[in-house]
Design a protein that fits this description.
Blueprint: E1 15-23, H1 30-39, E2 44-49, E3 53-58, H2 70-75, H3 78-94, E4 106-112, H4 117-127, H5 141-145, H6 149-158, E5 164-168, H7 173-186, E6 192-199, H8 205-214, E7 242-250, H9 251-256, E8 263-272, H10 282-296, E9 305-307, H11 314-328, E10 335-337, H12 340-343, H13 350-359, H14 361-364, E11 366-367, E12 391-392, E13 398-405, E14 409-416
Parallel strand pairs: 4-5, 4-6, 9-10, 9-13
Antiparallel strand pairs: 1-7, 1-8, 2-3, 6-7, 8-14, 11-12, 13-14
Length: 422
């Protein structure tokens, strides 16, 4: 049972963030990413993929060779490379003496929406040139497509011999990775948790075809305006790749090494709609938010920023806003924003990336805007919705991060800025 008052937890049960590494379609570091969010810079561009053809996507442009050899990158996967890049940057950001760290006490927990589709599609495509003779099938295929691959590639690259696995949680996976890391630290299964989410989704034509067949794939003459949650003219999802990985530690350990503490995880919750394969349930979403608030011992008016999940679909955005109105009901000075409007939907990485973009507000006191809202849909009206330009808030103490996914999986995470050192 989680305490309803995080201030009463002993320091070894209080979990803090000490490092963040990321790659997004509009930035490859926290500083670059934050600058893009504050300046309104989109990372969505024209994109073409085999069989499906021309479309739009959020494409990352990071240095794969910064933390990987050419051989390992060729043997592995795009998701693995994203994970290795983000994990390496997060470790460096944390200031941990990695060379001397006990790798048996490090755990890796990586959220994914799906994994293996890219590699399987590629093998089938390549096999056409050999008249579908399966003797030419790559011997790398099985390790590339096993579900634990992204976390496993990080473990191999960083020499981690503690537990590693991926968490399949659809588009709630980024939050789920952080929640799993928090729980494993509290259970003393590890001393350092490398956790978050990654996505290579833009490299599988199937995801574009699937969303298109649902009528849920965004189109626009200007790629930078295609991802437009809450807007009357929104017409679907912009698929994106990316990753964001965090270093989590117990507060006691972080204080002992005088680490720079970015924030404390004070509340989280996960639940399930159990009503539809795709269509969200606003009542269950509201309950998930309320559960996280209860576990954190917080009132709604204490939340400074809510990072919304909204993907740009007609029903999904409206139902999430309905859930948020149910919980917040216009009380307090809470601000609401959306990061997918800048980068598209990075699937398994979405929750982790969107949280990172808002955690920067702990330092600069600014709530970044939601871009591309030219005409607000009345069904998406929220008191405190930030559109067009960033809002100066001054002090930001709490950020609440929504992340929801298909098959009705919901996740919510709450992070606090200041650390009460008792």
């Amino acid at each position: 049972m989680i305490s309803t008052n995080h201030n009463l937890k002993p320091d070894d049960q209080r979990i803090v963030i000490t490092g963040i590494g990321l790659t997004a379609p509009n930035g490859n570091s926290m500083a670059e990413y934050r600058e893009s969010l504050l300046s309104g810079k989109s990372g969505v561009s024209n994109y073409e993929i085999r069989y499906f053809g021309e479309t739009l996507a959020g494409v990352c442009d990071f240095d794969v060779r910064r933390h990987q050899t050419r051989k390992d990158a060729r043997r592995g996967t795009r998701a693995g490379s994203i994970g290795i890049y983000c994990a390496s940057e997060a470790i460096e950001h944390s200031g941990i003496d990695w060379e001397n760290a006990d790798k048996s006490r490090v755990g890796i927990y990586i959220g994914v929406t799906e994994h293996g589709n890219v590699e399987t599609e590629t093998e089938v495509h390549e096999l056409r040139g050999f008249d579908y003779d399966t003797s030419f099938w790559s011997h790398h295929h099985n390790p590339r497509t096993v579900a634990n691959n992204p976390a496993g590639e990080i473990a191999l690259n960083k020499g981690v011999i503690g537990p590693h696995y991926t968490i399949g949680a659809a588009c709630a996976a980024g939050n789920a990775g952080l929640i799993q890391g928090t729980q494993m630290l509290r259970l003393n299964e590890c001393d350092v948790a490398i956790c978050g989410g990654v996505s290579e989704s833009i490299h599988t034509f199937g995801i574009f075809a699937g969303f298109a067949s649902q009528g849920a794939l965004a189109t626009h003459d200007d790629p930078t305006q295609a991802s437009r949650p809450f807007d009357m003219n929104r017409n679907g999802i912009v698929v994106a790749e990316g990753g964001c990985i965090y270093i989590l530690e117990r507060l006691s350990d972080a204080l002992a090494r005088d680490a720079n503490i970015i924030g404390e995880i004070v509340g989280y919750a996960m639940n399930t709609d159990a009503t539809d394969f795709v269509l969200p349930n606003s009542e269950r979403q509201a309950q998930c938010v309320e559960m996280a608030l209860g576990r954190a011992g917080l009132a709604t008016e204490q939340i400074d920023i809510v990072s919304t999940h909204a993907t740009g679909t007609a029903q999904g955005d409206a139902l999430e806003c309905e859930a948020l109105r149910r919980v917040f009901n216009g009380h307090g000075n809470t601000r609401f924003n959306n990061t997918k409007s800048f980068i598209g939907h990075s699937m398994g990485a979405a929750g982790a990336l969107e949280l990172a973009g808002n955690l920067a507000a702990f330092d600069d006191g600014v709530c970044h805007a939601t871009i591309n809202v030219d005409q607000l849909d009345p069904d998406c009206a929220l008191d405190g919705l930030v559109t067009d330009q960033p809002h100066e808030l001054g002090n930001v103490e709490y950020v609440l991060n929504n992340s929801f996914g298909m098959l009705g999986i919901n996740s919510v995470l709450i992070v606090k800025k200041s650390i009460d050192r008792e």
